[in-house]
UniProtKB/TrEMBL annotation:
SUPFAM superfamilies: Clavaminate synthase-like. It comes from Klebsormidium nitens (Green alga). The keyword Acetylation does not apply. One of its GO terms (molecular function) is metal ion binding. Signal peptide: none annotated. This is Phytanoyl-CoA dioxygenase. The keyword Iron applies. Keywords: Dioxygenase, Iron, Metal-binding, Oxidoreductase.
């Protein structure tokens, strides 16, 4: 694909650069939302939970295992922390216990690949000045009713670091996201403070290189989003979501994109693809550019 036209307006880019996030309403049709939701349900139905992995942003190191690392290059399933009883048995049906699916949906599943590599996604990246945008991670997040886990304040650059930092997230509301069912909350302008910490991979496992600073969550603003909306997030933006204690789910799809020209993927990121499965660019600024494998 050549560089697409369209994308963000000047006012939208100014708002994104000022706040570190931008709500784009009606970015996705409700029909497309339903197709992605149905595909996620099909994937969960076909999943045999022999290997149980739990996703947590509170104690990522404790819950990180070989299954998690391999998810960088496949489609894997992660349960909610509150999905099991003391004996390790699911307390409700599998379909209501999954936290998320990740992390290579954007490459390996036709439905999610089609959205992640659509011209409208590419057009947004082009309007932000990206020369060789590379989708590197994707997640289908269920935010299950009653047990949808809290996501503590964090930055996406912490987990998907490039030098210089370049992550942009497309957070797609597949269902209405409200304060009641766990919408995103963000600290406007916090992206201007730069990256706070790293989640790094070593021979001895993975760990954060420093503690997360304390943030006054009362200064955060809710980003309520109707189904079909996209929330664009700068990788250095501090954002979070509360537990979903409501009876309504909050399905969302997220794809993270980095700059593949002029930014270097960190070799100690937790997410490392097999050498025969490199990231694929949405487009290249010039066809004469040499392919960069990251």
């Amino acid at each position: 694909m050549g560089i697409p036209a369209g994308g963000l307006t000047a006012d939208q880019k100014a708002a994104y650069n000022r706040d570190g996030f931008l709500l784009l309403e009606d970015f996705v049709s409700l029909e497309e939302c339903e197709r992605l939701k149905q595909r996620a349900e099909e994937l969960v139905a076909g999943f045999d939970p022999k290997d149980v992995s739990i996703f947590s942003t509170k104690n990522q190191k404790q819950h990180t295992d070989d299954y998690f690392h391999k998810s960088a290059g496949n489609i894997s399933f992660f349960f909610e922390e509150k999905a099991f009883d003391e004996k390790g048995q699911l307390v409700q049906p599998k379909a209501l216990s999954i936290n998320k699916i990740g992390h290579a949906l954007h490459d390996l599943d036709p439905a999610f690949r089609s959205f992640s590599r659509s011209e409208k996604v590419a057009a947004v990246m082009a309007s932000l000045g990206y020369k060789r945008p590379l989708p590197v991670q994707s997640m289908y997040i269920f935010k299950q009713p009653g047990i949808g886990g809290e996501v503590v304040p964090h930055q996406d650059n912490t987990f998907l670091y490039t030098d210089p930092p370049s992550v942009v997230a497309f957070w797609v509301a597949l269902e209405d996201a409200t304060k009641e069912n766990g919408c995103l909350w963000a600290l406007p302008g916090s992206h201007k403070e730069g990256n706070v910490r790293r989640f790094i991979r070593t021979d001895n496992g993975v760990h954060f290189d420093k503690d997360m600073p304390h943030y006054d969550v009362t200064q955060m603003v809710p980003i309520e989003a109707r189904a079909g909306s996209v929330v664009l997030l700068d990788g250095s933006l501090i954002h979070m979501s509360h537990e979903n204690q409501s009876p309504k789910s909050r399905h969302a799809y997220t794809v993270h994109v980095i700059e593949g020209q002029g930014s270097k993927w960190a070799e100690d990121n937790w997410l490392q693809r097999p050498v025969n499965f490199p990231f694929e660019a949405l487009y290249e600024e010039a066809t004469s550019c040499e392919k960069v494998v990251v």
